[in-house]
Amino acid sequence: MINILIIGAGEAGQTVLKEILENRTLNRRFNVVGFIDDKKDSVEGYSVLSSIDNVSTVIKSYNIQEVIIAIPSAKRGVIERIISSLNDCDVTIKIVPGVMDIINGHFNINQIRDIEITDLLGREEIGFDEEELILQYRDQVVLVTGGGGSIGLEIIKQLLLLPTKKVIALGHGENSIYDLIGKFGTDPRFDYIIGDVKDYSKLIHEFNRFKPDRVFHAAAHKHVPLMEKFPDEAVKNNIIGTYNCAKASIASGVKRFNLVSTDKAVNPTSVMGTTKRIGEMIIHSLNSIQTGCKLSFTRFGNVLGSKGSVVPLFKKQINNGGPLTVTHPDITRYFMSIPEAARLVLKAGVLEDGDLFILEMGDPIKITDLAKKMISLSGYAPEDIDIKYTGLRAGEKLYEELLTKSEEIVETGYERLLVSKHRQKNLTEDEIYQLINNLKEICETYDNDLIKKELKIWVNEYQETVCQ
């Protein structure tokens, strides 16, 4: 049998104990030796063997092979303290899900998982506000572009937890759609479209066929260095594709349209950020030009574990023995978990007041610190795996911003979701038409300098960075 130690003698720890004792298969496999807790003395006849600071001694004394951290509301410092105390112990470390899953009754023993870097960067504590979202999304047909991407997939997953009538994923890649079918295909409300946001004819056909009430536009090219090399693709996908989706939404009677944007759109130094900024401008302007469809955009920073993010890269580099590559010792980024980002986007999609929503990202995190935490989390000492500084890449900033100088934000009714009250300068219909047509023509030249020059005309604050 595997000797287990449960850290945390509260409700979550007691739930873990109960599930093991009442499940015959688990009871035969696992032996709960006791608990670790800073406050309690015993739980259901099981001893609290020590405080967190002395956990390593307990592990050695009782031959513990697996530790389950059952403190779902723990802050970053508490989790770091626990992990630090286990660094020299040869044990498997598991953790329970976030506090909201337990509060909502969604927690069971199968959700206990390996510890991840997100657990060291602050636990997700933002609630689903399920009762209010149920009212807003009941019997709604919702279409999500970029459905195969990290954010799009999570939006779909959370929409299917609500009483939606139908949830449609639109994706360009057949493999990503195939994966979605495997995940959600048994739900009769799930449907899908293989299509490209650059193809307006296809969009209007599908929008008229499904008649969505709401559209979440998550499709985008996001990789900064790649878009520096192929700015024509960034323009076509992030600007023209966004315009096509918004235009198709208005034409087909969609009631709500929300663009998923990025902090890289603020004072952009990259083609990717500039194209996302122009996408924001188009959405803001179209929202003021017409009244049939409420258009808005939600801006946030990096998402931990998303495709192309630094976390999967670091994991791969650690598995290869290092080094971990960081572009600059001082580079910082805002981070949040994929579920929290998607959850807040869904909330932004129901608010009426304002069209620019900002997700409160907390404090920025040094990428070097993130690399060190991942090395430690993987069971290595700092000297075991090197960190190599490679220099800033084309279009890359040292730090990101969530607001321009002229944007002022106030709270919404949802925690960590803010709205800007600043009224930006609108483009007229003629200006939008001119913008789109100019960009279409210039993209066909495949002249990178010419494309960037045109982008600067529309976004004055766009300043290219020089690689270091």
From TrEMBL:
Cited PANTHER family: POLYSACCHARIDE BIOSYNTHESIS PROTEIN EPSC-RELATED, UDP-N-ACETYLGLUCOSAMINE 4,6-DEHYDRATASE
Record Gene3D superfamilies: NAD(P)-binding Rossmann-like Domain
Stretches assigned to the Polysaccharide biosynthesis protein CapD-like domain: 142-419
UniProt similarity note: Belongs to the polysaccharide synthase family.
Family annotation (InterPro entries): NAD(P)-bd_dom_sf, Polysac_CapD-like, Polysaccharide_Synthase-Rel
CDD domains: UDP_invert_4-6DH_SDR_e
Name the record gives this protein: Polysaccharide biosynthesis protein
Pfam family name, one: Polysacc_synt_2
